[in-house]
Amino acid sequence: MLKPLIVIPARGGSKGVPGKNIKLLNGKPLIHYTIEAAQGVFENQYIYVSTDSIAIKQVVEETGLKIPFLRPEYLATDTANSRDVLLHALEQFELVNHIEPDVIILLQPTSPFRNQKHIKEALKLYSNDIDMVVSVKETSANPYYVLFEEDDNKFLKKSKDSNVLRRQDLPKVWELNGAIYIINPKSIKDKLIGEFKKVVKYQMDDVTSIDIDTPLDWEFAEFIARKNSF
């Protein structure tokens, strides 16, 4: 039987959209969308919300989850990285539950339209001989076609060379959407996420890939949530 650790990171000091993790999106705290998606797949004992904020803790516990301890201050800064947060969560999880998880599932609360169906489908792609399954969408900014860099003379050149003339003939390029990361615990202990080599994609569509980082992202998410009754 799978022993998972689900980590939902929710720092209190968000700057793009202040207080966004508990801000109401279509009448519901943003973080509740992700918690409810996780609860649709896993028991509460496996779900850990990593936060440094008392306010977030109180909103999270409305869902029935318990947060037995807050994230330490050194993991609540702008420079704290996901790997350190995951390793701290892993350490605390093993300490409290006396088990080593088989897999770590990172679910960011800024992806409100990722649901339990997506999590279940992504989990089917995971095996313990890979580093990670990660959710993606097909990028609209294809580096073979619309992305350019400046050369030494300040002239634009394509980011990736290609002789293809039609956009539809270009190789597909995938963009991480930030919704789901299913990680091998051994891999995260041994190396940085950016150093993973055995990574499998789980594709999502543009709407369910919405990731809230700016006020404009929030306005668009609010529109989608109201239109689709999320």
Architecture overview:
Keywords: Nucleotidyltransferase, Transferase. By secondary structure, the chain is of the alpha/beta class. The protein has a single domain (4-139, 173-228), classed as Spore Coat Polysaccharide Biosynthesis Protein SpsA, Chain A, CATH 3.90.550. Helices cover 27% and strands 20% of the residues. It has six helices and ten strands, in the order βββαβααβαββββαβα. It has helices spanning 30-39, 54-60, 82-97, 116-123, 185-190, 215-228; strands spanning 4-9, 24-25, 28-29, 47-50, 103-106, 132-138, 148-150, 156-158, 174-183, 199-203.
- Stated plainly, the CATH topology is called Spore Coat Polysaccharide Biosynthesis Protein SpsA, Chain A
User: What is the first-to-last residue Cα distance?
Assistant: 32 Å
Number of domains: 1
Q: Which series of helices and strands comes N to C?
A: EEEHEHHEHEEEEHEH
CATH homologous superfamily placement: Spore Coat Polysaccharide Biosynthesis Protein SpsA, Chain A
Number of strand elements = 10
Anisotropy-based shape: globular
Q: Helix fraction?
A: 25-40%
Low-confidence stretches: none
Spatial order of strands in the largest sheet? 4-1-5-9-6-10
**Largest sheet descriptor:** 6 strands, mixed
* Strand portion: 15-25%
CATH architecture: Alpha-Beta Complex
Averaged pLDDT: 92
Protein name: Cytidylyltransferase domain-containing protein
Organism: Psychroserpens luteus
Keywords: Nucleotidyltransferase, Transferase
GO molecular function: nucleotidyltransferase activity
